[in-house]
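Morning!

As promised:
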Amino acid sequence: MGPLRVDRVELPGTGQLMEIARPANDDPLIDEAAADPEQHLPYWAEIWPSGVALAATIARQPGALDGRRVLELGCGLGVTAIGALHAGADLLVTDYAPEALALCALNALDQTGRMPDTRRVNWRDSDTTLSTLQGERFPLVLAADVLYESRDVEPLLALVEQVVEPGGELWLAEPGRPPAARFLEAIRDRGWAGESERWEGPWPDAEDDAKGVVVTVHRLLRRCEAEL
Ligand SMILES: C[S@@+](CC[C@H](N)C(=O)[O-])C[C@H]1O[C@@H](n2cnc3c(N)ncnc32)[C@H](O)[C@@H]1O
């Protein structure tokens, strides 16, 4: 992975600060990804506004996570995971990049004194993902900026219907990419409903402020089977 650097991250509207270790130079990671037939780009190595907005959402309502078993999909460097652990969650994080799982655990330990459980899953391989999760269902699933490729819409729809327990919630943060819009339309058609909140920054990277990035955090409730 090469040398690391540490970035300071402020959660908007909360005054909370985090320090996040990340690769100092993405170029070798991008060169490695160019040779990957699956085109798994190293998006885990960046600090994304969606992860920051989801951590800020958690900071405003920690009681929703305290003492609860929580799953995060696509944890990246761990910004959202740190928020969840601060809130008292019993957290399992997943990603397909082993480097992301390692840095998420390192950052979480450094910032909270606790480590999440970690499992490597690729949600495009649904059978292996479900067996890795050992059939566990969760009252709350977190996901920040995981819907940027069309090929992920159907696998993620199928996965959340398997891993969010009836009456449980999916908290999805997304910055307006078309696959996220398709996912949201499909999941609402399946009866999921809830509130959405817009976050306008300021973001850790001033370029995101200059581009006017807006993140929406959707808190989607899966109805109980009796209500369907
Ligand atoms: C844009 S990054 C967002 C990271 C983090 N949630 C955040 O907001 O900072 C997307 C994350 O999802 C992971 N990911 C993408 N496709 C995946 C897949 N098919 N299975 C598991 N993880 C995946 C990436 O490795 C990366 O960590």
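The domain at 4-227 is CATH 3.40.50.150 (Rossmann fold).

Hope this helps with the figure draft.
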